[in-house]
Amino acid sequence: MDDGDFPGCLVLPEATVEDLPDPIMIQILASVPATELVLICRLVCLQWKELVDGASLWVLKCQQEGLAGEDQIEEDRENWQMFYFLSKRKRNLLKNVFGEDEFESWGDIEHGGDGWKVEEIPGDCGSEFTEDENVKKCFVTSFGWCRKAQVVDLRAEGYWEELLDTTQPSIVVKDWYSSRSDAGCLYELCVKLLSENEDVLVEYKSDTMALPQGNVEGWKEISHTFTNYGPGVRFVRFEHGGQDTVYWKGWFGVRVTNSSVMVEP
């Protein structure tokens, strides 16, 4: 069969994917996993490279996956692709933050007085942790100063050097602390951003927080956000601790739980 079999018929050229308008192509590409978009699709042709490097595709992916509202537009963010990847990776980088595994993952442990202990929440003369029903346990200090630390390797957690040195995403640290109602206590938080050789590049140290005997305010949150911290950050060292102020034998000191270190877009 050839064109002469149908006299007067218009023969259309065969369409290819390159002929599709950009809005249709963006809809198609949005269904592709993000890593494949960057590592494979953007290498196919100039059109695909421009779409993958552009904001429209990533705005759509963020909306489809609940990372952005339907009313958000390209101008709302400087780099939607980076926002997508950082949002997907966002998680607590600290481990064993409730004491479910006793002191696993914690190091440089200083056991003052009778040392650290893990207790069920609320414990004697304590407060319920109403902010998150999944938090069931906490670490408790004694009559001598107790400290413990955890070091996060950012590269091992999937954050590459160019991202850390150029984009410098926010590093947000949080902790929760509380006292017993029958004893006063002290609390401190110290977080350091470290270099490849674990030299201190930036440091945050809280004041010494004093909770008086008879305190019934429940759990308190402390938070700090590192931004514009400069190139070279490879590790985050999180340290907290405290003690009681009545110097009673046992575990009447500050209680801590739900500590977190997160890299945020």
UniProtKB/TrEMBL annotation:
Keywords: Ubl conjugation pathway. The keyword Magnesium does not apply. Residues 14-61 form the F-box domain. PROSITE patterns: FBA, FBOX. Pfam families: F-box-like, FBA. SMART domains: FBA. GO terms for biological process: ERAD pathway; glycoprotein catabolic process; protein ubiquitination; regulation of protein catabolic process at postsynapse, modulating synaptic transmission; regulation of protein ubiquitination; SCF-dependent proteasomal ubiquitin-dependent protein catabolic process. Residues 83-265 form the FBA domain. This is F-box protein 2.
